[in-house]
Give the backbone structure.
Amino acid sequence: MNAVNLKTVWAPRLLSILRIVAALIFMAHGTQKLLGFPASPNPAPAMMSLPWIAGILELVGGALLTLGLFTRPVAFILSGQMAVAYWMAHAPRSFFPVLNGGDAAILYCFIFLYLVAAGGGLWSLDTLRRQKTA
């Protein structure tokens, strides 16, 4: 397989797989906060609190990204959410992400930022909608 095939055939598919896997794992944070699944030792956040709003963004944004619907604007919002979460909750603990527990927030932030530029990939509702209007 040559480099052209990798780029033209596999890159859009692997972009979709990255989007789907990252979104499903991200969405699990929202289901845990808001729905108690998987079980968490933390109580459910109070309605309209910062953790509750984060849970809504994680649940709804994760679902939209999983489907590849409104990928770019949703990914932009979620990238910003993860940047804020890192600087508010993790960075004050330590300069080093491996010590402050913020490595996942950093990865989500940059994966979502990449999706802002790259879109949802071949297997997304955005692509399907674009094909129907063309």
User: Anything to note?
Assistant: The mean pLDDT is 95. The two ends are 31 Å apart (CA to CA). Residues 3-35 form the longest helix (33 residues).
